[in-house]
Amino acid sequence: MAAELRVIKGNNFLDRATRRLVSGLTGMGISLLGSRILYVRGRKTGEWRTTPVNLLVHEGERYLVAPRGHTQWVRNMRVSGGGELHLGRRTEVFTATEVADGDKPEILRAYLRRWKFEVAMFFDGVGPDASDEKLLEIAPGYPVFQLN
User: Fold this and answer.
1) Which end of the chain is more exposed for a tag (fewer CB within 10 A), N or C?
2) What stretches pass through the bilayer (predicted)?
3) Residue 2: its pLDDT value, please?
4) Which domains does the chain carry?
């Protein structure tokens, strides 16, 4: 599978249980290391779709990284151009700009420093100490959006 088509579907019991736990706590207003619930409009139905995400703040900018690749929320974000982040009762409406592959290495490095314990399985052994060349090599498989 080409890197630009990379999608990892986690659907085992542990993955589903973890996503439910994170979603439940975040929905109650308890952020786990920056967790939020992403609401984005479906590109075909226009209905709200939700998924837990990790909000990365790096050098004063905010990003969403898709460790599982070009998933449905990524495809929906590309069409909608934004969405909402929820933490408990707080809602933040945002627009998003996709980051070019050449600009991703430092963002991916920061993301891995913060959440390697949680997302390492999706990065095939690439960690925060990887070279810029390696991060550039894998960049097409990991969509990144800058929030405005």
Assistant:
1) N
2) 20-39
3) 46
4) 8-147 (2.30.110.10)
